[in-house]
């Protein structure tokens, strides 16, 4: 890639979020490469955007800032014209961050006096009205996200949530302004900036709102957003939406699903897979904590089932079971141990011939992709809104190639775990 060629440099705070963003950029007409972690070398080949996937959503804020700045430096060295900090469409964060601290650190590094933040993704039911985030018909704090294992979201007022994470003043661009079009949005941004506001939550109820916002932010060095805003950025470079997802190599190998997501949508997908009579192995967090080789057991269980079709290994559990585990072992420790076990399962499955792997949950996906040593991925066809198939040739997949789908916790229909593989045939 020659310096100056990169139209958009993206930093995603988790791995499912990265493929979600890459998917929307591809569908809106950009050639996109996803790098898992900050690459050690310049990328080869010409693309319009690179998404650097980090696992920085729930780590200490100072570490998230340091990793994001390292990603920024790399993207700047590739000539990135605009920077996109991809956050979760449910604004997953704690009062300590990391959305505020990372946004502000990127603003400082870019000399950016003003930016917007919007998680809106109407195609997936995420809308922002007067700064309040809705998930479908429910306010964020009544959507199930109040029970998230790592980032419980108990306030739907995003101006308030972000202000708690930021020294800079946080303001609002409300939907009536957004509906009036790009010039009205630019006027509002200038007005807020003159009032001393540094970051504005932007309302959006529809894709048309996102397209208007996309045009209005063309001149901003940085935007902070879910993947929705991405549909409005390629047009700023004369690129048009394309229904043609990049073609991937033919699928090969066995099929498996690894799920550490405890989101409501994933709970339904696990139940649906089991109810359909498909093979499923429940990983017991208490036995993992006791030091038992649960990953080894799961792999031994999977071996005879794999030739018959997709198998599922999961720790997915309802909120009360998650709370019981967390109160015994601590939130972070419980999460890390389970992620470690599921990552070992993912690696073992690929070593045993799995070539088509679905991973559910952003933190879980980060742990699995890191354990697989997958450094780069090409983005292929969409399975469900926000979830594409990807293809990797690196790490554990360097000889055979690996199709990977990283499913965000709350994305996908109930039959996602079986239907995903049908799309690869
Ligand atoms: N049964 C469980 N009890 C406690 N924590 C769990 C359990 N299953 C998974 N976890 C942890 O909860 C977190 C889920 O986060 P993530 O993978 O991002 O999915 P999601 O955001 O969809 O819930 C991970 O850290 C995972 O290890
Ligand atoms: O924006 C989104 O909702 C997703 O891209 C995402 O980041 C979801 O994260 P997980 O729920 O942790 O998978």
Automatic annotation (TrEMBL):
Top-level lineage group: Bacteria
Record key words, sorted: ATP-binding, Carbohydrate metabolism, Kinase, Nucleotide-binding, Transferase
Boundaries of every Four-carbon acid sugar kinase N-terminal domain copy: 8-231
Pfam families named among the record's database cross-references: NBD_C (PF17042), SBD_N (PF07005)
Domain Four-carbon acid sugar kinase nucleotide binding: 256-417
InterPro entries: 4-carb_acid_sugar_kinase_N, 4-carb_acid_sugar_kinase_N_sf, NBD_C, NBD_C_sf, OtnK
GO molecular function: ATP binding; kinase activity
Protein name per UniProt: 3-oxo-tetronate kinase
Function (record text): Catalyzes the ATP-dependent phosphorylation of 3-oxo-tetronate to 3-oxo-tetronate 4-phosphate.
Endpoints of the signal sequence: none
Keyword field contains Iron-sulfur: no
NCBIfam families: OxoTetrKin
Organism: Ramlibacter tataouinensis (strain ATCC BAA-407 / DSM 14655 / LMG 21543 / TTB310)
């Amino acid at each position: 890639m020659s310096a100056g060629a990169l139209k958009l440099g993206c930093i995603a705070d988790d791995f499912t979020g990265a493929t979600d963003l890459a998917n929307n950029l591809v569908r809106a007409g950009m050639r996109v490469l996803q790098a898992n972690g900050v690459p050690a070398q310049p990328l080869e080949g010409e693309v319009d955007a690179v998404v650097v996937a980090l696992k920085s959503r729930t780590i200490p804020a100072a570490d998230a800032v340091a990793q994001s700045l390292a990603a920024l430096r790399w993207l700047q060295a590739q000539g990135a014209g605009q920077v996109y900090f991809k956050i979760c469409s449910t604004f997953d964060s704690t009062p300590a961050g990391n959305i505020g601290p990372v946004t502000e650190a990127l603003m400082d590094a870019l000399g950016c006096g003003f930016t917007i933040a919007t998680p809106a993704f109407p195609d997936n039911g995420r809308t922002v009205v007067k700064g309040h985030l809705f998930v479908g018909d429910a306010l964020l704090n009544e959507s199930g996200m109040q029970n998230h294992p790592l980032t419980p979201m108990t306030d739907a007022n995003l101006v308030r949530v972000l202000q708690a994470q930021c020294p800079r003043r946080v303001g609002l661009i409300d939907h009536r302004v957004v509906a009036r079009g790009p010039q009205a949005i630019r006027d509002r941004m200038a007005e807020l900036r003159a009032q001393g506001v540094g970051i504005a939550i932007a309302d959006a109820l529809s894709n048309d709102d996102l397209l208007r916002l996309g045009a209005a932010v063309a001149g901003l060095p940085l935007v902070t957003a879910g993947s929705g805003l991405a549909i409005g950025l390629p047009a700023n470079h004369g690129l048009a939406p394309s229904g043609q997802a990049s073609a991937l190599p033919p699928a090969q190998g066995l099929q498996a699903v690894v799920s550490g997501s405890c989101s409501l949508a994933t709970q339904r997908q696990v139940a649906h897979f089991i109810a359909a009579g498909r093979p499923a192995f429940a990983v017991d967090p208490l036995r993992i904590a006791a030091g038992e080789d649960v990953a080894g057991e799961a792999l031994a269980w999977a071996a005879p089932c794999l030739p018959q079709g997709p198998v599922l290994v999961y720790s997915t559990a309802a909120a009360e079971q998650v709370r019981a585990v967390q109160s015994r072992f601590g939130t972070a420790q419980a999460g890390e141990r389970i992620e470690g076990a599921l990552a070992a399962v993912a690696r073992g499955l690929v070593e045993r011939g799995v070539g088509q792997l679905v991973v559910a949950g952003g933190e879980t996906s980060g742990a699995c992709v890191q354990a697989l040593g997958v450094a780069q991925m090409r983005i292929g066809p969409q399975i469900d809104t926000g979830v594409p198939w990807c293809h990797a040739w690196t790490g554990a997949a360097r000889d055979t190639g690996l199709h990977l789908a990283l499913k965000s916790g709350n994305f996908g229909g109930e039959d996602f775990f079986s239907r995903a593989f049908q799309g690869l045939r």
